[in-house]
Amino acid sequence: MVKGANVGLAALSEDVGSVMVSLGWSSATGEGDADVSVLLLDGDGKVRSDVDFCFYNNPVAGNGSVQLLGKTPTADGSEDRISFDLDAVPEEIDKVVVAASRYGGSRFGELDDLRLTLADSAGDGLVRFAVEEADEVSAVIFGELYRRSGEWKFRAVGQGYASGLAGLATDYGVDIDDDAAEEDAREQGEQEPEQGQGQEYAEEAPLPEPAGQPTAPARVPAQATGARADDVPAAPAQDGPAAAPKPARRPRTAKKKVTLPRTTRKSLADNESWRSARLFPVSALKSDRERETRATSVVLSVMAQVPEFGRRLTAGFGAPAGRMETFTEVTLPHGESPRRPDGVVRVERAGKLWTALVETKTNGNALKPDQVQAYMDIAARRGYEAVITLSNDVALEGSPLVDVRIDGRRKHKVALWHLSWAEVVHQAQMLIRHEGVGNAAHAWLLQELLHYLQHENSGCHGFQNMGAAWVPVRRGIDDETLCQGDARALEVIENWERLVRQVCLRLGGELGQKVLPVQRARRGSDPGARRAELADHLCEQGRLNAEIRIEGTPGVLAITADLRTGKLRTSIEVPSAEPGYPLSRVKRLIRRLAEAPADLHIETLVDGPGAGPRGTLERLRPEPADIVPKDGAQITGFRLSLFKGMGSGRGSAETGFIRSVDEAVDRFHAQVVAQVEAPAPRRSRSEEPTG
Questions:
Q1: What is the mean pLDDT of the chain?
Q2: Cβ neighbours of residue 615 under 8 Å, at least 6 residues apart?
Q3: Integer Cα distance of 373 and 80 in angstroms
Q4: Which residue in 282, 244, 669 sits closest to 460, CA to CA?
Q5: Which contiguous run of DSSP H or E holds residue 17?
Q6: For residue 575, what pLDDT is reported?
Q7: Which of 125, 156, 23, 18 is nearest to 80 (CA)?
Q8: Whole-structure pTM over 0.90, yes or no?
Q9: Quick one: CA dihedral 30, 34, 36, 42, positive or negative?
Q10: Residue 494's pLDDT band (boundaries 50, 70, 90)?
Q11: Residue 486 DSSP symbol
């Protein structure tokens, strides 16, 4: 396209409900970079509020319809990707502006081959636009997506702003704090290195050191934190050496171990605007590279300093129990171009070393097969035991995240393992909230780690995108055009399974109990065949189904997402084995659900064919006899269900599908399952019903 031209997306492809926009550039030194931003504008050409300004500190906007996916290296530079779920863009938004800006006095004239490409949900390229004459500007509008008569169109703009991002944002109604903007500009000009330059590191400021273990050399970049070495908060004094755990016993809560208090202490701050000092600050994170570097260093450091935590994350990978050291910024030879894995973990026991290379991704970025393959080859040549990948994605049985080639001629075998950020958070929660760690310093370190990983800027939020197939599959179910065997349905099933596994990890970490997905399949069945069968059911019925088992609960929690009606159903079947008359059983159940929501649906389960009576808790409280079977059928239990609107977006934003599933499960467990688990209130003999 040429500057000023426009085109309707529907004329280019049928799969434009969701599109991917990529902004790219290159530089002679390979160090030039820019930050991408997106503005969502209403009919007046202004943002509705500052949340409609999508940039590195606010990577998701428009109810999850716009997501910054981060940078991807290319052969001659880098490319920034932005995902647009056009079907989910709020109706009040008429135009979406795609721009980029440079910092620290840099200009776009220092970059070459400025370009925008637009691809449909299938990945087919539809539009390419080259931006020219941007020599003296520090911000550029590459293009616009806008609505016309219910159709989305794209316009090639190529307009520059000498006033930079602040001038561009102000023109569209974003409030800019002048003092903050000046300070930010000053920091960028004085401190921040260009992408690709070597970063300065703080002098090693050791974390609290367990007795008998040296401080690991994994460090946090000084530039990333914005603090000097002597500004790092001091760790609290240790209570003493950690007690050696007994291998035969691993109690859920040990008396001699430290967990976080359930209630927080009263703050000494004058007001709520004061922020606690943090060991791992997140305010300076701007690019995916910075997020990956910081996250790797933070996690590896805490693994080395808290033996219980390090052991939790490596035991499943075949690592021995021993002295652990972790490293970052390691250079390893690999042909003509050395490789730099994000980290290395080494464990020593009885004079032998176990070594794993670590490759990290944050902010939803996918692992690169060529990178992982290179690390597998290096590990095999050097006699290392494993390569560990760490990303937002969740691995599935029988469906590897990265396909690697194993050279059968090598005698030394290297294992490839994957960790999700959700698993890291889960293990930290289990230790400091439920099972305990060696001393108060270890608990404090894990709490700082949790605060960092759960912060919106860290990029370590676990699985948070249902994928490019989500919108086409949902649309195909609506218009009944989705056919069995469609590969997009299988992709949705795989991502649904990832989401359910992540729900189990999150809920288990909060409750301190085992929470596992239930697979209704014969032992030994092929996971791929099972998912293909579920994909066919999705095409036929339009529903996603899952079951999770929570330790200590009376039944299995079922989740159903009906893509035809847009409703989520959470339910549990409670057995009724107590003695007594049918009406007495019903009344005991309703008393137990005294704090449950009024819209809870209760269905009586009966022995034999047919369904029992049902009703809402609001109606049954004054008339419990309404769900007693009139034909005298024997009551075997009750099904309790809550319904909730399903999020439409494929992401984890406020109105996204992932967020709605999390909220539905949390509400159902807190307001229904927890009520069923609790013992029924005791009643006097005079209050006991006689019917």
A1: 80
A2: 601, 602, 626, 627
A3: 24
A4: 282
A5: none
A6: 86
A7: 23
A8: no
A9: negative
A10: very high
A11: -
